[in-house]
Amino acid sequence: MLTNMHVYDYTTPTVAFEKLCDSLSVSRTFVSWLSLAVSVTLCYSIYALLSLFRVSGIPRVGKRFEPSAIQGWKFFRNASSVLHDGYSRHPSSAWRFLRADTEMIVLPSKYVNELRSLPHSIASPTLAHAYNLSGSSTNMNIILKSNLHFRALQEKLTPNLNKLTGPMIDELNYAIRMELPECKDQWVAMKPYHSILRLVARVSARIFLGQPLCRNEEWLEISTEFTENTFVTLVVLRLFPRFLHATLSWILPSAWRSTNYIRRAQRLLTPGIKKLQSGIITTPSHGDTGSTLLEWMIEIANDNERNAKDLAHLEVVLSLASIHTSQMNAVHVLYDLAYYSEYFEVLRGEIREVMREDGQWSEWTKNSFYKLKKLDSFMRESQRHNPPTLLSYHRIMQQDFVLQDGTVLPRGSHITMPVNEIQNDSTVTSNPQRFDPLRYYNMRKEPNQGHLHQFATTEESILNFGHGKHACPGRFFAALEIKSILVRLIMDYDWKLPDDQARPKNVMAHEFVFPNPEGILYMRARNET
Ligand code: HEM
């Protein structure tokens, strides 16, 4: 016979749940947390199991039954050894490794030419960038909605670089006065990471938004801090399986801050965008000839791309793509120059030659900067030793695709290339351990090589900017901006490392490589210019 205690009303799950808790004499909160933990563990186990079987036929590096969370942690701590291990075993074929949030298929560069012109419908770089940046949790999924920013850079900004050189130089003059310390006749300690970030942010803002917004302190904060917070968020999220990202981003302060920066950018930029769209503002905002990137975006936008808030959002995305990437290269070059200090005079000699031909730096054109082949070579060599990321050429396969040697890239898989391993392979770069600042300058002196091996040129095995039709559309602007900043820093100041100190060590997180933000250099004003 059943006692009353066992006669439950199961008509609703809530009632059944409450009765069960009463009968077990445990608190409802405890049971809720327990069920959540069991569900998460179950989902995670299924996810980990599925990832074991996902891409058969392509060998995987890493311990076979080690959970993806542990492999992801190892990748976070020491991505270079994971990639070095995989590349040493499989230098000319595909292999894969597990991150906590996905599995990556790593390809050698021999496949670049097969992949470089595939359309988005087969291999999508945009989906891969959005995924890699945890787009749905970091406000970066806007790039899936429109590629207006990409087109504006390719069709408008790059062909007009010559006209933009004047405004860039003008803004840099102002930025240097605002951001660098007074150091006449004395050595002053400073952190280049922070000062150069502000120089790049100011010069970029002049080109992206024009005057007076480029000097607006709120915009300068948004354009630098959005990126820093987004990277903190994605570095953390990458340690967890994908299905937890949305929940985790609710509790990460860096994710709230990024979202707030997007809202602030929309509040700040939308009124001006609407005026430009309705033709109320017609004069170019540089205060010079030419347009700003924002004006070009408005000019070429199609009917689905005219939403003012989306345009403001894309301006922030452009800041993420451009400011820290350029700043990092400039800081690496300065750290390398301070270490190999004999090259200061080599580069100054080259700059003096261009001044003899083209006049004072303030009158230079894009072509004047092109003549700085030794500086260009130094920048490229510094980038080879300190690439912004160890992995590049990300694509998500939208269809199964069979490479010519029969390797199958399944639909949904995430492919990438180990740029750092490839460019430091001795079959690609002779004596790769050696830091040889004039390596590419000397290569360009060979017959028919003059236009090759430049900082902004991409090659099958030099993939820091990608390669082919999806390669970085901002790389020519980046080269010009970085050179204009470096010319000033090299000519107007002496630089040195603190006594007995080596070059500041890079900071690594997952595949990302950052110049040390705490690195200190001493600077002193020179009289020459
Ligand atoms: C040293 C500086 C820079 C580096 C190393 C760099 C590197 C890259 C790389 C590797 C890609 C991906 C290419 C691919 O898919 O294969 C990329 C894409 C892109 N870059 Fe750059 N970049 C730099 C500067 C800039 C600048 C200054 C701008 C803007 C003015 C810019 C705008 C973009 C955009 C819009 C994309 C495409 C993102 C998308 O698909 O939505 N980059 N960049």
TrEMBL record:
The chain crosses the membrane at residues 30-53. It comes from the Eukaryota. Pathway: Mycotoxin biosynthesis. Heme binds at C472. One of its GO terms (molecular function) is iron ion binding. The keyword Cell membrane does not apply. SUPFAM superfamilies: Cytochrome P450. Its cofactor is heme. It holds the Pfam family p450. Gene3D superfamilies: Cytochrome P450. Keywords: Heme, Iron, Membrane, Metal-binding, Monooxygenase, Oxidoreductase, Transmembrane, Transmembrane helix. Belongs to the cytochrome P450 family. This is Cytochrome P450 monooxygenase-like protein. It comes from Pleomassaria siparia CBS 279.74.
